[in-house]
Write a structure and sequence with these properties.
three-stranded antiparallel β-sheet, HYDIN protein, Ig-like_fold, Hydin-like
């Protein structure tokens, strides 16, 4: 009896790389940006977007595209406080992220919408992370 198996782990890319900057907005206006989470592996994986705990340092992007593979892959920041969501969207200050969880088939991708509604004057900054199962 011949038996074989191949051990693999989740492979993915996140584009654009962190940080995401909406720039200056006129109070009361809205601007939307898209983050693309792509499954580059042979297995489906689930993802969840959460608000990063305050003690997590901001991660610096290295270019317009980041690719992560393997068990040492780190969570990427895309745009600071703790919260976990299983809802369709995550609301943080002036930002709304959706969807904030889901599953991506092999070689599939998920477009994640990050919307900024300029509320009160001043700077608003939030730090998020994308948790991917099996990374």
């Amino acid at each position: 009896v011949r038996v074989s198996a191949k051990a693999v782990y989740s492979k993915y890319s996140i584009e654009p790389a962190s940080p995401m900057d909406f720039g200056a907005l006129i109070k009361g206006t809205k601007k939307t940006q898209i983050v693309v989470l792509e499954n580059k592996g042979m297995l489906s994986f689930k993802f969840r977007i959460c608000q990063a705990p305050e003690e997590v340092p901001a991660l610096q992007g290295k270019g317009s595209k980041e690719e992560e593979t393997g068990p040492s892959a780190r969570q990427r920041s895309i745009a600071k406080k703790p919260s976990i969501s299983t809802q369709a969207q995550l609301n943080l200050g002036m930002f709304t992220v959706s969807p904030c969880s889901g599953s991506i088939a092999p070689w599939g991708q998920q477009k994640i919408t990050v919307e900024c509604l300029a509320g009160q004057e001043g700077t608003c900054e939030e730090q998020l992370y994308i948790d991917i199962t099996g990374r």
